[in-house]
Amino acid sequence: MSALAAPARGRKAGDRTQEVARAALAAFCSGGYRLTQIAHVSERLGVSVGSIYRTVESKEALFHLAILEATGALPAALELPLEVSGMRDSAEHLRRVATHDSLWSTLEEANAHPAPADVRAEAAAIAAQLYDSLSRRAAIIGLLDRCAHEIPELAQIFDAEVRGRLMQDLERWVVSRKLAGEVSPARAAALARGAMEAIAWLAKSRPGDPTAADMAEHDARAAAIRIFVGAFEYGGRAA
């Protein structure tokens, strides 16, 4: 029975579903999908492999549990052991999340209108939402960064439907605002990618980097916005 269709039940005392979900998320982020085995999760928790199979019936179900944990969608009640239909359930869940989560609505709104008088302020607003979105979704982005290329169903969603569309929208904005000097798709793509890389590192990678351990969240957010805006000021006319 699919996890999406299964009737929920209350958890019993000693139910370790969330512990398993968190350990699975850490294991897949560390080892990737192909190399991570159920035994790696049991080792992290210091329990037997058999106890993990009381929570999930397969590696695919374990990965789906990690997906639910990473998206903040692990239900309080779940039929155990969790069963899934290959990667279909994970793909459907991610597509729903991507569809309903407005990660860059400020950029989309900007692209729907002519350039404002203050393009710098527009750029700052776009950067702020991108930082907040990546920070909020850091867990699932980290998981997909590590595993999606090994799973075709998820690569299509992550690379084409989410990340690819975001970059297309950002490049379109750069060109429409003439922020890349001469209107060059290659130049616009390079600037957009560089600006996004800065935001992505500060929003989702910085917390785990010991070299940036002392950087406060509000300072990281402010720096991301400054770098994003500055990238386009340097790349073309001052906004």
List strands and helices in order, with pairings.
Blueprint: H1 17-35, H2 38-45, H3 49-53, H4 59-70, H5 88-100, H6 105-111, H7 119-136, H8 138-147, H9 152-176, H10 185-205, H11 217-235
Helix pairs in contact: 1-2, 1-4, 1-8, 4-5, 4-8, 5-9, 6-7, 6-9, 7-10, 7-11, 9-10, 10-11
Describe the structure.
- Residues 1-14 have low confidence and may be disordered.
- With 239 residues, this protein is mainly α.
- The longest helix is centred in the last third of the chain and has 25 residues, at 152-176.
- The protein is built from eleven helices and no strands.
- The termini are far apart.
**Strand residue content:** under 5%
The outline comes out as elongated
Distinct helical segment count: 11
Q: How far apart are the termini?
A: 55 Å
Structural class determined from secondary elements:
mainly alpha
Number of strands: 0
Rounded Rg: 20 Å
Helical percentage: 55-70%
Domain count: 2
Low-confidence stretches: 1-14
Sheet with the most strands, sense and barrel status: none
Output mean pLDDT: 90
Order of SSEs, N→C?
HHHHHHHHHHH
